[in-house]
């Protein structure tokens, strides 16, 4: 496993981050806890969760996990606030404070290593949000803060405000990023992707600034699982996950998939490993969030660290050149 650090937070962060969206609080959490144990044993010490996961119960389940294992301080814990409800965007001081204080109680912890805004509302000023994050940073309740699904323009606005007021800036961002470009919104409005040629400006910004990118949906909802083909898309689309169909199934992405398959055969790797290697071997500072269901999938994901791609291969996969 490779490790890094996020700015001033004096705690190592594994290159891979385990997403916990599939974990919901229930009477029997044995399998979920064993899956987390396996990730930790394999060197992944970073967990990503959110107030909005599991209808608000994923944080509760993680609190039970930390209590049962006594390993909270060994885990780099990421959580997120201000997910929209059906009634409002919830990007405000009131909801941020409520979500954070609830998260601390639910997860049986005095602090969260990295706390993030899950969504943005560009009609709201950034000042009160940064002020609130800084308040809890000073109190030691959060060790650093960042954003998910924010545009680079809003990140710059927030960081300019922080600098002008002598506060720490946002230290990470979590957009969608993968080999696949998005043809349509996969979820509710407000999700931000930096994939594809249409987002080159954002990619260039992340390259120039080297802000860590916590990339979600790096497998494009299963497109790079190795189980989906162009023939299936054309003739049996009902077999493909509806979200994948809506957001990622299209001619250019299937060309990317076919090139990934070709490269996988040449390098003795799997298609998912090539897809992960694409984002790991690029010029951005990327930490993939993975939702591995078992030890085999975790092993495969970690194995992508051994798959090295040249700049020419990365560009060829992304259809930026015809040969490599």
From TrEMBL:
GO terms for cellular component: cytosol. Residues 17-318 form the NADP-dependent oxidoreductase domain. This is Aldo/keto reductase. InterPro entries: AKR_Detox_Biosynth, NAD(P)_OxRdtase_dom_sf, NADP_OxRdtase_dom. Keywords: Oxidoreductase. The keyword Oxidoreductase applies. It comes from the Bacteria. The lineage of its organism: Bacteria, Bacillati, Bacillota, Clostridia, Eubacteriales. One of its GO terms (molecular function) is oxidoreductase activity.
């Amino acid at each position: 496993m490779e490790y890094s650090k996020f700015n001033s937070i004096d705690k190592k962060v594994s290159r891979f981050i385990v997403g916990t969206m599939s974990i919901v609080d229930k009477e029997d959490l044995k399998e979920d806890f064993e899956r987390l144990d396996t990730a930790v044993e394999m060197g992944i010490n970073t967990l990503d969760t959110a107030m909005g996961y599991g209808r608000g119960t994923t944080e509760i389940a993680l609190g039970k996990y930390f209590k049962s294992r006594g390993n909270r301080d060994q885990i780099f814990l990421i959580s997120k606030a201000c997910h929209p409800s059906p009634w409002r965007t919830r990007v405000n001081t009131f909801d941020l404070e409520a979500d954070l204080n609830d998260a601390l109680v639910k997860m049986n912890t005095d602090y969260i290593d990295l706390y993030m805004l899950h969504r943005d509302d560009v009609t709201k000023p950034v000042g009160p949000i940064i002020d609130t994050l800084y308040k809890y940073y000073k109190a030691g309740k959060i060790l650093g803060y960042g954003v998910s699904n924010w545009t680079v323009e809003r990140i710059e606005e927030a960081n300019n405000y922080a600098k002008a007021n002598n506060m720490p800036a946002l230290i990470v961002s979590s957009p969608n990023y993968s080999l696949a470009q998005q043809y349509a919104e996969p979820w509710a409005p407000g999700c931000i992707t930096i994939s594809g040629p249409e987002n080159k400006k954002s990619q260039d910004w992340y390259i120039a600034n080297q802000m860590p990118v916590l990339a979600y949906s790096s497998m494009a909802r299963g497109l790079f699982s190795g189980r989906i083909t162009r023939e299936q898309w054309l003739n049996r689309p009902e077999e493909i996950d509806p979200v994948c169909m809506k957001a990622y199934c299209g001619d250019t992405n299937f060309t990317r998939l076919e090139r990934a398959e070709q490269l996988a055969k040449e390098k003795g790797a799997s298609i998912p490993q090539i897809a992960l290697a694409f984002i790991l071997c690029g010029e951005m500072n990327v930490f993939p969030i993975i939702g591995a269901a078992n030890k085999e999938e975790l092993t495969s994901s970690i194995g992508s660290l051994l798959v090295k791609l040249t700049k020419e291969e990365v560009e060829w996969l992304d259809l930026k050149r015809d040969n490599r």
